[in-house]
Amino acid sequence: MKKITIAIDGFSSCGKSTMAKALARNIGYLYFDSGAMYRAVALYCMQNGIIANGEIDKEALRQQIDNIKITFCADAETKNSVTYLNGVNVENEIRTLEVSQLVSHVAALDFVRTALIDQQREMGKSKGIVMDGRDIGTTVFPDAELKIFVTASAEVRAKRRYDELIARGSTPDYNDILANVVERDHLDQTREISPLRKADDALLLDNSEMTVEGQLAWLEEQFKLRTAE
Ligand code: CDP
Question: Among residues 20, 78, 131, 206, which one has the fewest Cβ atoms lying within 10 Å of its Cβ?
Fold first, then answer.
């Protein structure tokens, strides 16, 4: 069967990664989390003194951007994809609220996007991938054969992120998370370069009322339809 490219975009914390990961596993495709790459750049800034008075030192980041290498590797036990920043496993550190509060500012910088989009296209050049993010169907892979745009209400999304952080052992505040979800939606939709928007040829999926299993069944159906064409 011919291999295709699957782009899953949408609003923050709407469960894109969960469904993208499960779909990739079931159909034998590779999964790439483009948001994890922006998160890793944000973490790099925090770890390397590139933030001063809460502001990103853009010139310092511009000079160092080519030294930031992000890779994914499957965990030996769980088989889940793990994010590495310059060879170090940062999968947990990139999910904190501190990183979430910085990431959309980092992701709005043109030179950051250019560098990461190059890396993303390289990852997808042999097809047979599922990549999730904000601009995968519009900018990274505009020719992707299957594009999905996912959304859900801000409250549902904040609750999902809250539960995820609790499961990771943190003690988050629901209202802080809701505020972050709303702020990131705004920043992601209004930035100049590659703003978050549904590609004209993407299928819309509002999963506020859907179970994970229901979504996955729907997605697999779309995959079958697309690869049967
Ligand atoms: O998982 P969550 O929905 O919280 O977000 P994410 O996929 O981890 O992405 C984190 C942030 O990275 C987003 O809020 C965007 O600002 C940025 N991002 C982006 O600009 N372009 C992408 N392709 C993916 C993420």
Answer: 78
